[in-house]
Amino acid sequence: MNLSKNKIEIKNFALPEIEQFIANFDAPKFRAKQLYNWLYKNFAVNFSEMQNLPKVLLSKLEKAVSLTTLNPETSSNSNATKTVKYLFSTKDNKAIESVVIPESKRITLCLSTQVGCPLDCKFCATGLMGFSRNLTVGEIVDQYLLTSRMYADKITNIVYMGMGEPLLNFYNVLKSLNIFLDENAVALGRNRITISTSGIPTKIRELAESKYRVKLALSLHSCFDETRSRIMPINKKYPLKEVIKSLEYYYRNTKNPLTYEYIMLKGLNDSEKDIKAITKLTRRFPSKLNVIPFNSIDHMLPEGYSTKLVPTERDEITKFVKKLKQNGVTVMIRDTQGDDIAAACGQLAIKNN
Fold first, then answer.
1. 9, 19, 97, 261: which one is catalytic?
2. Which terminus of the chain, N or C, has fewer Cβ atoms within 10 Å?
């Protein structure tokens, strides 16, 4: 698949923009919706697939428009969990990863929103890449569209949990949501899309005031500012109290229960004190806790504090979760998916990007 650097990336466009664009070719307005459907419902990557559009129009479009923003490079398959990791390259020779996670009742795509990540969370391989740039709308959406062409079964759910902090690419993420939710495009339901954030309060509030009302998950990992700041430097800028207030605002506006993601780190966040704090936090408004085993980031050759992080033993995780359940917390252990191909939570990263 050849990516043109000089053509218009039409997958950055929602339907009203495509309607304006089509008018430049003296085509009737209904042709825009046909093109829109080919892009986002039928996953077209070649103009030859668009059989109900006039050849004259297709010829003009082919000269002006690029249908793809990403080039599929390789895929890796987990023998243990059937998870599949896809590597894509961009027009400016950057690389990003997306992961398909098959489960009994759904198939979830974990997609990326940035090349690398600026937040430097100590447990996350992506942060060790550093940060290059935000992904465009088209690059976000194309992860779904291209993966849907390659993966054998229908992808039913999307989680913005891959490379990057989605709320630091806020407006491109919102525009991608518009395409994913549009019944004339991908047509996923709001309850099938989750945005995961490290906690950007102003953007959480903006998202709460938007029309999208998708699910929201917070990378929590500690209820104590001192610990959280040590493993998540963003907490120094946005302390947990401020973040939780914005989550409460999100719940009040959307009525969506919140999810907390909690990577278990030995001696850091797995004590009785942590159990009490989590119990108190989850009683503020409807929420659940996903407990996640710490996955190795050794493939990125970590340095500094990251090298001191050790996973909590599995039997200790089980005890931790049991006590939380006894306290009335809705909690589950999110089993590792794809760690044998460096595709599990916190492992997505590419060297020398």
1. 97
2. N
Q: What is the 3-state secondary structure (H, E, C) of 150-169?
A: HCCCCCCEEEECCCCCHHHH
149 pLDDT higher than 60: yes
Same domain assignment for residues 12 and 95: no
Whether 18 and 152 share a structural domain: no
| Tens digits of residue pLDDT in 294-320 | 988 898 888 999 999 999 999 999 999
Q: Residue 341's pLDDT band (boundaries 50, 70, 90)?
A: confident
Mean pLDDT along residues 1-9: 74
Tell me which H or E stretch contains 254: helix 240-254
Q: How far is CA 217 from CA 97, 247, 274, in A?
A: 20, 9, 19
Section 146-165 average pLDDT? 97
Query: Given this model, what pLDDT does residue 351 score?
Result: 72
Which DSSP category does 251 fall into? H
Residues 109 and 170 grouped into a single domain? yes
Look at the chain and report how many structural domains it folds into: 2
Name the residue among 53, 115, 152, 123 with its Cα closest to residue 263.
123
Angle at 264 between CA 262 and CA 268, to 5 degrees: 110
97 is catalytic: yes
Residue 347 resides in a domain? no
Query: Is 345 labeled as catalytic in the residue annotation?
Result: yes
pTM here? 0.95
Identified catalytic residue from 110, 121, 124, 345: 345
